[in-house]
Task: inverse folding
């Protein structure tokens, strides 16, 4: 019996990691074989960032340029899907990823890459996630959440651009969980479980 590949999408601060962790815990408590994949620090970003620094440049894509950088990310994303996700899903596990290929595509759109369609074809060569859950949070609330964790927050404009980019790249059949400021992570988790139940039953 095949498992599922479930991936979260959303701007920084939207709670992707928190919701992925809560979902894996819920699945395991309900007798499912579930695995969490974080995927925050990918190979391409780390290496290209270090090489850029050697040349006195700032930013992961500074040396390669946005289009080449996004193409490299696309192949890295495909490798992760084929070798780190699919084997477990094919063995019956539910693999929950805190980030989806659409996060990287939206990042490319936000940074002005021109090769979005090519990158999408590469990233999704082995198929898209079975279920993509978009955690839609307002940029204002996201920025405050990031600051509350004592992290350097992107500008409000960057977060707004990132959110708009998701609207361009996400497929129509994804689950859209809208988060308002008053909702706790547990409330959002209940919404995620409810939405998944309707899709997976």
Result:
């Amino acid at each position: 019996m095949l498992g599922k590949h479930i991936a979260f999408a959303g701007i920084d601060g939207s709670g992707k990691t928190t919701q992925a962790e809560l979902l894996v815990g819920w699945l395991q408590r309900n007798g499912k074989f579930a695995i969490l994949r974080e995927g925050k620090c990918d190979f391409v970003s780390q290496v290209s960032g270090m090489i850029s620094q050697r040349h006195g440049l700032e930013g992961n894509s500074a040396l390669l340029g946005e289009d080449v950088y996004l193409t490299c990310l696309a192949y890295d994303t495909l490798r992760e899907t084929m070798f780190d996700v699919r084997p477990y899903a094919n063995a019956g596990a539910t693999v929950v990823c805190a980030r989806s290929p659409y996060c990287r595509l939206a990042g490319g759109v936000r940074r002005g890459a021109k090769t979005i369609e090519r990158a999408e074809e590469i990233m999704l060569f082995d198929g898209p996630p079975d279920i993509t859950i978009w955690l839609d949070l307002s940029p204002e609330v996201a920025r405050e959440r990031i600051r509350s964790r004592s992290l350097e927050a992107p500008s409000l404009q960057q977060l707004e651009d990132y959110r708009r980019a998701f609207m361009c790249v996400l497929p129509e059949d994804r689950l859209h969980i809208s988060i308002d400021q008053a909702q706790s992570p547990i409330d959002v988790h209940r919404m995620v479980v409810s939405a998944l139940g309707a899709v997976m039953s």
Remarks:
- Residues 66-90 form the longest helix (25 residues).
- The first strand starts at residue 4 and ends at 9.
- The beta strands are 4-9, 34-37, 94-97, 131-137, 175-179.
